[in-house]
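Q: Hi! First time doing this. I have a protein sequence and I read that you can turn it into a structure. Is that right? Here it is:
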Amino acid sequence: MIKTLVAVACTLGGSLAAASAGSAAADPAPPAAAPAGTALPANAGPAQIVADSAQRMLTELDANRAMYKKDPAKLDHLVATVLLPSFDSETAARLVLGQTWRTATPEQRKRFVDAFYHSLLRNYGAALVDFTGDRFKILPFMGDPNDTRASVRTEVKRASGEVVPVTFELHKTDTGWKAWDVVIDGISYIKSFRTDIGSEVQAKGLDEVINRLEAEGIAPKQGT
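A: Yes, that's right. Below is the predicted 3D structure, encoded as structure tokens:
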């Protein structure tokens, strides 16, 4: 379940801007994505955060897809610099661990957050490298820009023609809007991950789970 959720969410992430550019149903008159190397304004809204990250990723992958397929380390760097800064990995990690977070030591918490982040990095890259932008649609943003939480709704069209709703959950932080969950066809990424991680923690202990995530996050050598 986790791998499926990650793959769909990441594939969608790189396609939102392409879909929104051709759809009148997109966020009402959203600001254009910032040029490469240009920071978004401090007051950028949640829909703009999602669309901007998507367009940056889409543009770069379209231009250099062969390079990223050949060199996973470069793909990791792209994901780390474009997508993950808009994802609140610490909040997500805390919610995934649930009650275990409360009893974990400061060192275990730090290791888990770092391992969780790098595991996401590897999964995101693997899911993104072959995506296309012709099956996705960003829906009108219906939230209040003054709220501290927001849902950015999108749709994914599978090869079968089935349309799957995908919602990005974001919250406002001291450094701007950050995504902390993805809900795919009613299934929460955080809740699914928490179920799997919780079972593994009970069976093997937190340190073993951290060790596994750390191993998953190790980038392969170039050319392998």
